[in-house]
Task: inverse folding
């Protein structure tokens, strides 16, 4: 077993200094560069000083310590304020509570703090991790090597970990199919790209795939990258719909319902009638979608169920010691309302 002495010799500092760094002792300052070297040695040498591991009584069967705590990596804004993610959060928290687990909300800043990461992950202060926010690739690899991890939503759909999501490309395809069935051939798109380019976002890929298969030209001037900003969706849509009728779309697919609602306001202010002059369809079935006037046609995503399935998948990995990366895609549903 790797000891503090091994780390001290590897770095070239005293055992006391190593202990202060690992315990995050703020009573005496340690040079930041020294701290960095100590944590690097911890990773390279595989030092795991959790007290449980130190004091295990040798026996033929050694039971794994369980804390009954799950870490959820999502910014408070996503978990509590964003309607889409708050439903996922509800599904997760209720499922974990029913199974006797508690949920600990973490941020990227927490995981980038070496002392905190060491305590939570390397010393296994949590039994598993649920991920929504995008995490650094190196951090992700280290987490999944140590404890069970499940990704929820799009950030982790292409990683070698268990994930729960819906088929974003197919959802966008279904939306375009609906618009085409209503006679639309001039179709625009409002989406967003923050951590990735919008052209690589799966709903946009589904939009382009459908347009191509239905033989419809994608007009670049009718593509709006709102960066998931409602104000940007509103302003850009107003500029687009201010064009002469022959130069603007007759329908717009929006990658999120809130983007669609903002765009619909722009149409209202220009005196356009929905859906006669311009039709809108969203994706996710935000609670507001059924109350706007006219009510918004949308692709309904089972957000609460995504949280439930993600929590159950993680519990199964923890309790059954299953280490298989399962990709779960939940079904979606077209809800036709007045906006188309």
Result:
């Amino acid at each position: 077993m790797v000891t503090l002495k091994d780390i001290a010799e590897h770095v070239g500092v005293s055992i006391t200094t190593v202990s202060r760094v690992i315990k995050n002792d703020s009573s005496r300052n340690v040079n930041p560069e020294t701290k960095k070297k100590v944590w690097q040695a911890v990773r390279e040498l595989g030092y795991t000083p959790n007290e449980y591991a130190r004091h295990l009584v040798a026996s033929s069967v050694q039971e794994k310590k369980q804390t009954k705590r799950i870490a959820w990596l999502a910014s408070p804004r996503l978990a509590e304020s964003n309607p889409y993610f708050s439903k996922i959060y509800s599904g997760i928290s209720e499922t974990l509570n029913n199974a006797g687990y508690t949920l600990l909300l973490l941020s990227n800043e927490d995981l980038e703090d070496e002392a905190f990461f060491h305590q939570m992950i390397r010393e296994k202060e949590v039994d598993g991790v649920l991920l929504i926010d995008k995490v650094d690739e190196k951090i992700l690899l280290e987490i999944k090597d140590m404890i069970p991890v499940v990704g929820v939503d799009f950030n982790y759909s292409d990683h070698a970990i268990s994930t729960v999501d819906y088929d974003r490309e197919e959802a966008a395809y279904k939306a375009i199919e609906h618009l085409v069935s209503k006679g639309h051939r001039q179709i625009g798109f409002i989406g967003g790209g923050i951590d990735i380019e919008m052209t690589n976002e799966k709903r946009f890929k589904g939009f382009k795939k459908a347009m191509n298969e239905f033989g419809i030209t994608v007009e670049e001037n009718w593509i709006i990258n709102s960066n998931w900003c409602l104000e940007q969706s509103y302003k850009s849509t107003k500029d687009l719909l201010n064009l002469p009728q022959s130069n603007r779309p007759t329908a717009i697919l929006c990658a999120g319902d809130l983007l669609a609602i903002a765009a619909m306001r722009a149409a209202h202010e220009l005196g356009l009638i929905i859906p006669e002059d311009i039709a809108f369809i969203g994706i996710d079935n935000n609670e507001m979608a059924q109350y706007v006037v006219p009510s918004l046609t949308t692709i309904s995503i089972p957000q609460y169920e995504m949280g439930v399935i993600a929590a159950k998948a993680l519990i199964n990995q923890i309790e059954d010691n299953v280490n298989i990366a399962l990709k779960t895609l939940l079904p979606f549903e077209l809800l036709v309302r007045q906006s188309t």
Notes: The longest strand covers residues 279-284.
